[in-house]
Amino acid sequence: MNYSSRKKNKTVKYIVLHYTGMINLQSAYSRLNSTLSDVSAHYLISRSGKIYNLLCLKLKAWHAGKSQWKMIKILMIVQ
After folding, report:
1. Does residue 4 contact residue 62 with C-beta atoms inside 8 Å?
2. pTM of the predicted model, to two decimals?
């Protein structure tokens, strides 16, 4: 799994939802667990709404990098 440690005594402040764009759940799961992808997520939600816990909240998931939403540049690394 692609993750790093979170600073001690840090709590989760935000929930960030991403659309993976993958063709199915298995493809998304494989991508989020591949050590070649350098991305991960705490949870994966299927199209039917089933939630899969992929990573403990005590650890920091990795985003794909810089993003932009409504002309606001966002770096998706929250510590």
Report:
1. yes
2. 0.72
For residues 66 and 79, give the distance between their C-alpha atoms in angstroms, rounded to a whole number. Answer: 15
CA atoms within 13 A on the CB side of 43: 10
Q: How far is CA 35 from the centre of its chain?
A: 14
- Using the structure block, give the residue that is written with the tokens 């991508």: 31
* Per-residue model confidence as pLDDT tens digits over 51-64: 999 998 888 888 76
Question: Cα–Cα distance between 29 and 24 in angstroms, integer?
Answer: 9
Helix (H/G/I), strand (E/B), else coil: 27: helix
64: enclosing H helix or E strand: none
Quickly tell me which residue has 């993750």 as its tokens. Answer: 3
DSSP bridge pairs for 52: 44
What six digits make up the tokens of 61?
């998931």
Best CA proximity match to 18, nearest among 67, 60, 55, 79: 67
